[in-house]
Amino acid sequence: MEKIVSLCKRRGFIFQSSEIYGGLNGVWDYGPLGVELKRNLKNYWWRVMVHERDNIVGLDGSILTNPEVLKASGHVEGFSDLLVDCRTCKSRMRADQVVGKKGVQCCPRCGSQDLTEAREFNLMLETRIGSIDSRSAVTYAKPAADLTGATGPGMSSTSSESQLVAVRGPAGELVTSVYLRPETAQTIFVHFKNILEVSRKKLPFGIAQIGKAFRNEINPRNFTFRSREFEQMELEYFCRPEEGMKLLEYWKEERLKFYENIGIPRSKLHVLTVPDEERAFYSKGTYDIEYEFPFGRHELEGVANRTDYDLSQHQKASGKSLEYFDEETKQKFIPHVIEPSAGVDRTVLALICEAYSEDQAPDEKGKMETRTVLRFHPRMAPIKCAVFPLLKNKEPLVAKAKEIVDLLRPHLFVFYDESGAIGRRYRRQDEIGTPFGITVDFETLGEKDAKLRDTVTLRERDSMKQERVAIKDLVNTLKSRIH
Ligand SMILES: [Zn+2]
After folding, report:
1. Cα 222 to ligand 1 centre (Å)
2. Handedness of CA 213, 216, 2, 107 (dihedral sign)
3. Each residue's pLDDT tens digit, 192-217
4. Which of 76, 304, 325, 441 is the most exposed place for a label (fewest CB within 10 A)?
5. Cβ neighbour number for residue 341 with a 10 Å cutoff
6. pTM (2 decimals)?
């Protein structure tokens, strides 16, 4: 795992957030190659989940969430972990991380038995909206109208910080605490009726969303696996209640296929049937799709039958009907929902772990050396193809190579590199997982054999095999191997 973390930093996949200031625990940034990999993953998910289906539409909801939404969903009350402090070394851990030695509870770091009682810790991150914060509170000693130029009913002002939450803005809006969403799903449930109306879909149909979510994890760990800020790819697939269990199986299989199609073999995936006692109380069935990370087997995605719990809760709390009317049967009911919910960052990490390998390859002089190679599926690879002129000081080679870059660019993400020996250039691309390399040589110019004019060497990353391909066939050849 250390080699992977170091490669991620060295080649610009993943950096620690705010690194020059010492970082921020549980938060990560994606560099030039990381952002490409992440985009390829999200775009492919969107393609197979939304564009290639008739009955799924998209949504891009906001991160700031009205607390009423999360009260209704149960997050304000129940979205918490049990927390324990060690009085000896002052470390803080989740209750399930406390180790038991001979039936006695101990601190996993120092071994002390002097632990606090477990207590609830809500994992949601809170912020405030409205023109107020503790640093600018003093300005509210003036009437609010002076600050904004607006007047209106229900306006009041205060200079007391303890009363901040009760302050009203000029429009009568209550300045209030809001949450950063802990999952993207709730935005979907809240817009169920809007989307049903505008999309004119019939059950079963789904709403898909990719976006950021936040959890104040007690112990962020395992590189990007458990982060405080992360991205989700979620689908809420609404159906008739009696179809729920069948669709749960359907989506589990679809999602397993997805991972295989991005280069994570079935043999490295495990499907865990979450036992009754560990499942959310409203769920009728949950599968966890797990991947064998170098640090253990961990969840990439949950596929759950959430029943009508969320829509019922929001209907009750908002007083707005979230029922579906079936034209054929003339029935009115709250649909059930199947939710495949995948973690973007976890899947990116799985892709990197799965792709990482070392093998033996000949160097410039034919001596075998260790080669680091990321064997990404071409579909996921950050850069699809690198283009090299054999020599950088031969103008016709450089000109031809640049012509090829222009030819390929509208179709795929290419990278041009003219510096260093050709073997070293191949190696650099192997290390970042570029599946194809094109070399423009003297044959391309027709100097040795007229028949080879306007052909190039196409090298494949994993086998290192080279073939001769006509420039005019390059686009189609590459597209058919990447898709
Ligand atoms: Zn301790």
Report:
1. 20
2. negative
3. 999 999 999 999 999 999 999 999 99
4. 325
5. 20
6. 0.89
